Structure formats: structure tokens, C-alpha cells
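Thread: Modeling a multi-component assembly for a lab meeting

Hi all, long-time lurker, first post. My supervisor asked me to bring a structural picture of a complex we are working on to next week's group meeting, and I have zero experience with this. I have the sequence lines for every component (297 residues in total). Could someone generate the structure of the whole assembly? Inputs are pasted exactly as I received them:
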Amino acid sequence: MRESATDPVVDEATEAAAEDGTDEISEADREPNDREASDGEASDGEPSDGEASDEAGSEASESSLRIEQLEHEGDIAADYLEELLDIADVDGDLDMDVDGDRAAVSIVGGDLSALVGRDGEVLDALQELTRLAVYQQTGERSRLMLDVDGFRAAKKAAVVRIAEDAVKVVKESGEPQPLEPMTPFERKVVHDVVAEAGLTSESEGVEPKRHVVILPS
Amino acid sequence: MLAEALEHLVRGIVRSPDDVSVLSKETRRGRLLEVRVHPDDLGKVIGRAGRTATALRTVIGALAGKGGARVDFVDVDRRR
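Re: Modeling a multi-component assembly
Sure thing. I ran the full set together rather than chain by chain. Output:
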């Protein structure tokens, strides 16, 4: 392969950004509680603490600034994807949103199965390229989530059900409950469900067999 | 269409978008897309452990449909 001869030329910033693509989720994966807390705050658009301190004002403007940043990420991503759809003559509309501390962009409408691919592999590739396009414009690593045709949303709903069932089992048995291996995104979803139910969980094993174990409180 | 799509995808992620070109060739092994970028951007389009190159190939493969398409990244400096 020709590219192997050129492989040593690796831009450090890109490397970091590319690395970020998977690893940021694993990070989140490791600290589900932290992430959840900050998600909640960001989505409120203001500090969740009702007892306003002196810092409340600056926190509020900080978080609205953050939301502006995320909306800007969404705009860049939408431009990048919209032109791709145009060129490829694929019908689809773009929805932009801010979900917690991430920009969220979804392509909806039309026959989009080609953009999802087997087990979402095309979707993951598109998400990766879109994050790099955002990084190129902003200089900031993006954790933007891309969805096509509700694929991730459906996947998430299925994982939430699995997690809820497992939480029930652990609460009744008081025994740790290992789940099947999952992707970083799916593990994050499980950690969030478990934390909300007042239990703890950790990820064990090595990819591709890394899986969540739900622990009794 | 494929060459144009690939060119767009690559232009969006490099520092020198004007230096990006994609050449489409019909070969005995099917369609081949040759990507040329500024030498400083080569690492960017290949990515760590070829990750970005793989992502580009995956998306182009999906758009190409049944026939598929190969994607080559040409190192302008070393081209013979």
C-alpha cells in the first residue's frame, strides 16, 4: 500500500484530534457521574444550584458561551454534511441541537441507510470526518455526535432497556452483574442509567471485549 | 460524483484546501480515486494508524455502492 510509505508524516494536532474521536468517549465512560452532572447543568443553560452565589452570574454567561460554541460546531458540521449530501445527490435534512455538553447533528428524511452502514460503520466514519472538519475550523477538538435516521437514538433506547433490566436484577440479588461487551458510546449510556438508579458501575476488560459491570450499592 | 464527494470531504479537514485534488481512474480492478494534498496535510488525511484514511474509504465505499472504489493517497514529494 502506498500510504504506508508516507505514514510517518503525522501532524500532531490531527493525531490528537483523531485520538480524541474514540478516547473522549472512554474518558466519559470512566467518569459517568461527573459527565452527567455537567450535562445537566449545561442543558439548563444556567447553574442548577438555586441558591445563587456571587459566581452564579459568571457561571451562567460561561455556560451560555459554551452553548454558543457548540451551536457554532453544529453549524460547521451541518455545512460540511449538507454539501456532501448535495454532491452525492442524497435527500436528507439536517437537524442541529445541543445535547448536554455536545453538539448534536442528525441527518433525517429520505433513504439514508447507505449513510449508516453495517452496524453504523459508515455513520461512525462520517462522524469522525465531521469532527475533524470542525477541529480544522475552530482549532478545538469536537465531541460532536452525529446521528443518521435515528440510528443512534434507537440503539441508545435498546441499551437503556438492557441497563434498566440489569439494574433490577442487581437490586434484587445484591450481586455484581456483568453485561455483554459494548461500544464506548453504549457503555456510557449504561453508566448513566446505573448512576441515575443510584448504583455504581465500572468498565472491565479490553476492547473489543470491554464491558460494564453493575455493582450493588 | 465520487471524486467530487471525496474532494469535498478532504478539503474540509486539511489546512490547505486549495491544494487538494482527486483524480478518478478506471483500472482493471475497478475505480481508483487518487487523492493529492499539500505535503504538510498528508498526515492529516491519513490520521493516526490510518484512521482518517479508513474513515474516508468507508464513506466513499458507501457512496460508491456495489462497484466500490479504491482510494489512494499520493505522496506528491515521493511520486516517481
